[in-house]
Design goal:
With 464 residues, the protein is of the alpha/beta class. Helices cover 55% and strands 12% of the residues. Bound molecules: adenosine-5'-triphosphate (ATP) and magnesium ion (MG).
Amino acid sequence: MISKGLTPREIVEKLDRHIIGQSDAKRAVAIALRNRWRRQNVPTDLADEISPKNIIMIGPTGVGKTEIARRLAKLDNSPFLKIEASKFTEVGYVGRDVESMIRDLVELSLNMVKSDEQENVRTKAAEIAEEKLLDLLLPPRPKEKMVSDMLNNAEEADEKDQRDEDQAQKTDATREKLRHLLKENKLDNRLVDLEVTETRSGPMIEIFSAAGMEDMGLNVKDMLGSVFPQKKKIKTVKVPEALEILEEEEAQKLIDMDKVTKTALDRVEQSGIIFLDEIDKIVGGDTSHGPDVSREGVQRDLLPIVEGSNVNTRYGMVKTDHILFIAAGAFSSSRPSDLIPELQGRFPIRVELDSLGKEDFIRILTEPNNALVKQYTEMMATEGLKLSFTEEAIASIAEVATVVNERTENIGARRLYTIMETLLDEISFEAPDMQEKEIIINAQCVEEKLNEIIEDEDLSRYIL
Ligand SMILES: Nc1ncnc2c1ncn2[C@@H]1O[C@H](COP(=O)(O)OP(=O)(O)OP(=O)(O)O)[C@@H](O)[C@H]1O
Ligand SMILES: [Mg+2]
């Protein structure tokens, strides 16, 4: 099973650990994710007919749209790509064409599957690598008898056989001793000469690749790589690094790349998710000039991919029918209905994210696993400084964020970053030299530090 089969409730619970509020959006993505799993478990002929219900997340800046997608990606083993829609240009213009996202997703999936496989063969690869390293440290003696031996008379040869036998036993014992030393890391400073294949990526190849040829599904590096044969070279490295290199090489040999490619393509087709951020940026303006004219073109180019088509990648054809698309945008100066109708229709589910207020900010500051307050406390702890915040201080920070968001631009939770940075600026600078080793931030500190800035609208626009 590809998906771990989390229930929608479990998915929401996991998202809750990082994102405060926004329950509608969490529900929608949780259902969409569960639907993938459901589809994979219905009879095959029907499964082909069930297409994903793509989602548009609408909400002001800094309220968690991208964060939800980012966390969702980590939950599930699905190949997941986040890309800004504004990066694309219409086919025929200079820039990235929309099909490149499918190619990127394939590349991503391939790496995922490959590293899974590498994990699977790791023990085996490590064993072989160890033997190879021992061979390097103590070259095995040649097994074949030399011609000169045969020419000599039988008696001498027998004697030599006996000597060889003794020698062999001695070598075996030495090898085991070396193995022992190796395992105990006692050889870590020994140097060995290793033959490595140089990865060929000269400047010329880079230029070719940059010219967008990769986007045509051609593997320029491989092509040119076979024109210029791979070069071997001797590298002198310490034992641990040699082991690493050998392990890597052996793992490559043990992995069946055909199988990996097939699995990777399959995963993309069956459970790929593409998060199209900034979809509102490809809404055509009324008086658009220059590059703007191609925005609608980009929307048109997106249609077949979202609906389902075949995209050629360097690893083979990919069917996009079952890839889930989650689009997101602030839609501050436009609406989803400004997208071309055909594209709107391909995103049947709309969820709105709420703008964040004081209570949300208090929770965002303290609750998530990666909450800002936790971040700063841990950072200061590395300086031997015990930093803490009183409840009133946190409420006060949240209040300031709300006020500044109202008075100037509403940038959502991102406001907390600038405020915390301003508030802790002095401590951040002085921490290593401070005499006191415990600092408690209370409401008074917050007011002293920030009030002056808030009072002056220009100043807060500038600093916060
Ligand atoms: N609801 C939330 N709960 C916890 N943290 C949040 C929330 N909303 C935003 N944040 C924090 O604020 C930062 C910005 O949020 P995010 O990147 O999701 O914004 P966005 O909605 O994608 O905005 P934009 O439209 O500008 O891309 C994130 O790093 C995240 O940590
Ligand atoms: Mg975003």
